[in-house]
Amino acid sequence: MAQIRPFRAFRYDTQRFSPADVLTQPYDKISPEMQQRYYRLSPDNLITIEKGLVLPDDTARNNVHTRAADKLRELIAKHALVQDAQPSIYAYAQDYQAPGQHDRKTRRGFIALGHLENYEAGVVFRHEKTLSAPKADRLELLRQTKAQTGLLFMLYDDLAQKLDAALEKIAATPPALQFDDEFGVTHRLWQISDPAIIQNFVQAMADKALVIADGHHRYETALNYRDERRKQTAQPGQQSSAANPDAPYEFAMMAFFNTRASGLTILPTHRLVRNVTNFKWEKFRQQASEFFDWQQYPPPNATNAAKVTNAQALAKLAADMANSADSHSMGVYSRDGLYRLTLQRNVDLTKLFPDLAPGQRELDVVLLHGLLLEKCLGITPAAVVAEQNVTYVREIEKAIEDVDSGRAQLAFLLNPVSVQTVVDLASRGEVLPQKSTDFYPKVLSGLVIYVQP
C-alpha cells in the first residue's frame, strides 16, 4: 500500500529569514493581492517560485517558469535555502481557529515523500476531478525547477492512532520552526532524523490507503511528470513502466494526517448566483417548491424582526441546518428573505439522478447543483465550471453582503461535508462536485522543499 520515505529537504535559513517573510499559502489559494504582498515582503519570498508574475514580454526562454528555476538555483547558491544533512521526515502541527468558530484546534501530521501511484492501483484515491489548465502550468514549473515547493495534503485511516501518539510526544520538544501566518494559524515543524523513529513511521503506513484531501492538480501533475521522466530514462527496448522504482521522480512530497485524529476541519463553500437572465424570485421559489419545503428566518409573524439577515437569524439557520442529520437542508438568501430549504421526503433521488451512485445522490451540494441551479435556474454544468453564473465564498457574511449590494442575486448556504463522507466516497472511486470541500487551514508552501537530483 502506501510507501513513504525520508528525504533531505531544503529549508529557508531561519537565522537569516523570518518564515513569515518568505513562506506562502499554496499557489491555488494565492489571490493577486496576496501575490503582490508576498513580493513586497522579501525579494527571496517563495512567491517567485510558487506563483511568479507573468510579464507581457515573456518568451520561451524567459518566462514565469524559467525565472522560477533561476530563483531556486540562486536561493540554493547563496545558502538562503539549506539542505538538511540527514534524510528526515518532519512532524507538522497547525494551531488554528476556523472562521465562524470559537475554539482553537490543533492538527498534527507529518511530512515525507510518498510513492506516486496510479488511481487504478487502489492505493491513492481522489475525491475531485481536475482541470487541464492548472495541471499544464504546474507541469511546466516542475519541468523547469525539478522541485516541489508545495505539499500534497493526504488522509489516511488509523483507528489505533499509533503515529498520533508519537507525534504528540514529538510536539513536547522544541520545534525547529514556529511562526504565525497571515490568518493567525500557528505553524510548527520538527525534523526527525532518527532512523528507528523513521522506520516506525514507514512500517505504520505500509498497510494504509491514501485519500487526497487537497492538491489533486499537483498530484496528477506529479504523475504526468513521472511518466515523462520514465520515458526519457527508459533503456532501448525497455518498457517505460519498468524504470527505476526508486527514482526521485517516482515520489512526491506529502503531508499525512489521520482521519481519526482531532483537528481536521472542513469548511462549507457557499454558492453565489449572479447574471441569471430574467431572474424572478417568485418563479424560482415556485419551481424549487416542487422539491423543497421552505422555512423563513425569522418567521414572518415574529415580533421585533427588524431584519432577516441579523446575526440571530443566521445563527438559528446554521444551527437548524447542522442538526438536520436525517434530512437534506440548506439555506438560501435573497433580498426577499432568508430561508431554509429541506428536501421533501417523497422526492425520488434515484429517479432524478439515475446516473449517480447512491452516495453522491445524498450530498447536499449535488442536490443544490442538480435541482436548484440546473432545473430551477437553468444554469448548466458547463456554466458552473466556467463560473459564468456561480461563484464561491467561504464566509456567510460575505455571501449576504454580496446579495444586499446587488453583486449577486442569490446566496446558497451549505453545511460542510464530513471527513468520513469524503473518505467513503473516494474509497469507492466516486468524486464530489468542484468546490465541495475546503479543508482548513491549508498546508503552507516552502516549509520544506523537495529538489529532485
Largest sheet: 9 strands, mixed
Output mean pLDDT: 93
- Count of DSSP strands: 21
Strand content: 15-25%
Give the N-to-C terminal Cα separation: 25 Å
Domain count: 2
Shape label: globular
Low-pLDDT segments, ≥5 res: none
Oligomer description? single chain
Alpha-beta content class? alpha+beta
Provide the gyration radius in Å: 24 Å
Helix content range: 25-40%
Number of helices: 16
Overview of the molecule:
This protein folds into 2 domains: 4-266 and 440-451, no CATH class; 269-415, no CATH class. It is globular, with a radius of gyration of 24 Å. It contains 16 helices and 21 strands. Strands 1, 4, 5, 6, 8, 9, 10, 11 and 12 form a 9-stranded mixed β-sheet that branches. A 6-stranded antiparallel β-sheet has the order 15-17-16-19-14-18, covered by helices on one side. It has 453 residues and is an alpha+beta fold.
Task: Record keyword descriptors for this entry.
9-stranded mixed sheet; alpha+beta; 16 helices; 6-stranded antiparallel sheet; 453 residues; 21 strands; single chain
